[in-house]
Amino acid sequence: MGAVRDLYDLRIPASPGTERPMLRRGPFAVLAGILFVGNAALFAAAGDFGALAVPAAVPASLPVLLAWYRPFAAWVVMAVAGPVITCAGVVLGSSMTPLPWYFNLLFAQVPVMFVLALSAPRRVTVIACVVTVVAGAATVVLLDVVGPVAVVTGVGSWCTVLLAAVLVGDARRARRADTLRAAEEVGRRRILEERARIARELHDVVAHHMSVIAVQAASAPYRVEGGVSEPAAREFAAINAAARASLRDMRLLLGALRGTDGPARTAPQPGLADLKELVESVRLAGVPVRFTVAGEPSLSPVESLTVYRIAQEALSNVVRHAPAAGTTVVVRAGPDGVAVEVDNEPPPSRTAPAVEARVPGARTGPGLGLIGMYERVSALGGEFRAGATEEGGFTVRARLPKGDDA
Predict the structure, then answer these.
(1) Which of 159, 184, 209 is the last residue of a domain?
(2) Under a CB-based contact definition with an 8 Å cutoff, are residues 81 and 126 in contact?
(3) Is the same domain home to 396 and 372?
(4) Same domain flag for 251 and 277
(5) Is residue 267, in this structure, part of any structural domain at all?
(6) Domain residues for 129?
(7) How many structural domains comprise the chain?
(8) Are 40 and 54 in contact (CB under 8 A)?
(9) ∠ at Cα 245 (239, 250), nearest 5°?
(10) By Cβ atoms counted within 10 A, which residue in 4, 86, 161, 244 is the most buried?
(11) Strands 289-294 and 327-334
């Protein structure tokens, strides 16, 4: 029952990178309407169905529209409709008994089999195709509607058309799967690259402070008036040695992570205090920015760097995608942490081209900004969300919990 339920719940897959189905609903509705009118007229005029022409046209046409909502259910209705309509024609003594491979029925079967092949695994589609042909052919043979030659010819052409529809649908399904795998691989690689970049920056923060500790521990005995005792001198030497060992270990670890053993930078990274300079540079790029710091943030170096990078990436995206749009940057400190909010309005209809080089640290790589912000906030156990607003602008929200050493 679980497998049947899964088949019943099948839907047309979404286009890669979107939530929209790969196929539009409109063409299915139009085709179903045309087939309904045509089948009703054909069954009434040439099939001698009389009052049953309209009821018979419903299962002959409905699967086309149903395929957009429930591909497997549409196939079930289609597979049953063919033999049932043939039996009805025999019972009513129709002068032209509808056969499963006649064009009026085939026009409904082709889109249904195509959508099923697009939505379902290959083995399911193959079984469905075989069942459709066997059921239709067996009905014609058992009722002895036409001769053997007509059966062989009709079934042969029928199989060819259905097989073509199945192959086209399966090819599109396979191409979509390849696209999703490629996109997933690119996304994974970008995440790893961004994590490595974040690791290097965090290493630089820690390395800077460890270097200060090492220097202070080495010079402390000489800066104390009257000197220090021998045990205190040994303690300072141990602190200096531990700081240097930590620096060496961090360089080796970072070198392994990034695949290089180049020297690490020990200069301090930007932080909250550098945001004013960043905002001024964005204003020079033609973006009107309002910057506010609410409360008194007390941040660790890592948290301060994270706040700076979030604002930097968000403003860089504004310069790149919404030049001259009014933007608000708010850093809000609270008892439970700090929040960063960057909101931009829709860009004016006519704006000057953005000057991305005026934003310090702006990058041109595609799709790394939001990934980087998310990874930074996640590394500190915070919350992050970003998305378009109803007015056509964009909003970025990040909240960092208060650290133990903040």
Answers:
(1) 184
(2) no
(3) yes
(4) no
(5) no
(6) 2-184
(7) 3
(8) yes
(9) 125
(10) 86
(11) parallel
Both 158 and 13 in a single domain?
yes
Residue 322, in any domain of the structure: yes
- Note down pLDDT in tens along the chain; length 406 residues: 566 677 777 788 887 767 788 888 889 899 989 988 888 888 888 767 878 888 888 888 889 999 888 898 898 999 898 888 888 888 887 777 788 888 888 889 999 999 999 988 888 899 999 999 999 889 888 888 888 888 888 889 989 999 999 999 999 988 888 888 887 887 778 777 777 777 767 666 677 667 778 878 888 787 777 777 888 888 888 888 888 887 777 766 666 655 544 555 555 678 888 888 888 888 877 789 999 988 877 887 788 888 888 998 888 888 888 888 899 999 988 888 899 999 999 887 644 444 443 444 544 444 447 877 888 888 788 999 998 888 888 999 999 987 654 4
225 and 130 housed in the same domain: no
| Beta strands across the sheet bearing 394-401 | 289-294, 327-334, 337-344, 394-401, 383-388
Per-residue three-class SS string for the chain = CHHHHHHHCCCCCECCCCCCECCCHHHHHHHHHHHHHHHHHHHHHCCCCHHHHHHHHHHHHHHHHHHHHCHHHHHHHHHHHHHHHHHHHHHCCCCCCCCCCCHHHHHHHHHHHHHHHHHCCHHHHHHHHHHHHHHHHHHHHHHCCCCHHHHHHHHHHHHHHHHHHHHHHHHHHHHHHHHHHHHHHHHHHHHHHHHHHHHHHHHHHHHHHHHHHHHHHHHHHHHCCCCCCHHHHHHHHHHHHHHHHHHHHHHHHHHHHHCCCCCCCCCCCCCHHHHHHHHHHHHHCCCCEEEEEECCCCCCHHHHHHHHHHHHHHHHHHHHHCCCCCEEEEEEEECCEEEEEEEECCCCCCCCCCCHHHCCCCCCCCCHHHHHHHHHHHHCCCEEEEEECCCCCEEEEEEEECCCCC
Confirm whether 336 is domain-assigned. Answer: yes
pTM listed for this prediction: 0.57
310 and 393: one domain?
yes
Given 129, 150, 184, which residue is the final one in a domain?
184
- The answer to whether residue 88 sits within a structural domain is yes
- The backbone torsions φ and ψ at residue 392, rounded to the nearest 5 degrees and listed phi first, read 105, 0
Q: Cα-flanking dihedrals φ and ψ of residue 374, to 5°?
A: -60, -45
